[in-house]
Amino acid sequence: MSRELDKMDFGSDVSEVFEKEDCKLMRLSNENGEGIMTVYRVFDGVYFMYNNFHMKYCRSDFAEGEGIICIDHCKEGCIETGIDDKSCCCLSAGELRIDNGRHNHGTSRFPLDHYYGLTIAFEIDKAGAALEKYISEFSVSLKDISDKYCGQPEPYVISSSKEMTHIFSELYNVPKKISRDYRRIKVLELLLYLDALETDLYKTVKPYFYKGQVEKIHAVHELMISDLSKSYTIEELSRKFDIAPTALKKCFSSIYGSPVFTYMKLYRLNRAAALLKSEPAMKISDIALAVGYESASKFSNAFRKEMGRNPLDYRKYSSQTEVDTNEG
């Protein structure tokens, strides 16, 4: 059985900053970065945990077990978690995962060095009693939700959808004056949605990968971003890291949220955007070469399609925005 969430220790990486009424702020810190976890008690046995991490990994002793329902939503970045010493699974931006808390227990890794998301945790018995007291005719049973989503060995994952975006986008921008009642209403909305959802139609199969494969994909990523003037084919990467091309593509997409070349194109253009702002004297042609484009015109076309402005206009706009901000 699980421990009570409001009395548990989240692990050695976590230190409590302050606690006030139904809100607790905790800082995660270790040798690779830091993060902030803001926890709200919405009902007895119902907790919202806003997670904003800028680090490579952290460890948590979060509760798990049959008495827990844990709903994780990834807004930005990616989180990689494992359930044993051999396998792990990733949650990417826009995705939602439901399980009994086992993916929140142990070491979590952040392949993009950043993760922003929301965890909603329920202690089934305590939360069920609180919900019944709050609205006596509420028809959704937390036990039924647990049986529906938490009974399989693998987590239930829902891909980004209009309905999910609607529910969770509002939870990241809660009006302060009505925050407690607003979160309570959103909990009811989410539970109604999950109760009505046809699971077979919306489930996303998130494959588990051997940790050895995941480590190779991290090495692939480090190689590709270490020198953007160089490009590699899937076959070259496959041979270099001794991983089958199909496994490489599937694992990379699961961890980093998009196919290899889609990811690298966006990475190159974001790096170019940073250079346009930080190196005002650097020629556009030199920036193009630095991020792997031999042709300045191809670079400019790709940049405009992604950023909405050509490189020169983007540099001017960024420079003017910075001046306006400083003057303000």
Task: Furnish the topology, listing elements before pairings.
Elements lengths: L13 E7 L2 E8 L2 E11 L2 E9 L2 E5 L6 E15 L4 E6 L3 E4 L5 E5 L5 E9 H11 L7 H8 L6 E3 L3 H10 L7 H18 L2 H4 E2 L4 E2 H16 L7 H8 L3 H12 L3 H19 L5 H7 L5 H12 L3 H17 L1
Antiparallel strand pairs: 1-2, 2-3, 3-4, 4-10, 5-9, 6-7, 6-8, 6-9, 6-10, 7-13, 8-11, 11-12
Helix pairs in contact: 6-8
The percent range for strand residues is 25-35%
Supply Rg. 22 Å
Give the SSE string.
EEEEEEEEEEHHEHHHEEHHHHHHH
User: Helix tally?
Assistant: 12
Question: What structural category arises from helix and sheet content?
Answer: alpha+beta
CATH superfamily of the largest domain: Jelly Rolls
What's the architecture of the largest domain, going by CATH?
Answer: Sandwich
Q: Considering DSSP H and I runs of 4 or more, what fraction of the residues is helical?
A: 40-55%
CATH fold category name of the largest domain: Jelly Rolls
Mean pLDDT: 85
Structural notes for this entry:
With 328 residues, the protein is of the alpha+beta class. It has three domains: 5-204, Jelly Rolls (Sandwich), CATH 2.60.120; 210-257; 265-328, Homeodomain-like (Arc Repressor Mutant, subunit A, Orthogonal Bundle). The chain is 43% helix and 26% strand. It has helices spanning 124-134, 142-149, 162-171, 179-196, 199-202, 211-226, 234-241, 245-256, 260-278, 284-290, 296-307, 311-327; strands spanning 14-20, 23-30, 33-43, 46-54, 57-61, 68-82, 87-92, 96-99, 105-109, 115-123, 156-158, 203-204, 209-210. A hairpin with a 2-residue loop joins strand 1 and strand 2 (23-30). Helix 6 packs across helix 8 (245-256). The longest helix is centred in the C-terminal third of the chain and has 19 residues, at 260-278. It is globular and about 65 Å long. The chain starts with 13 loop residues before the first strand and ends with a helix.
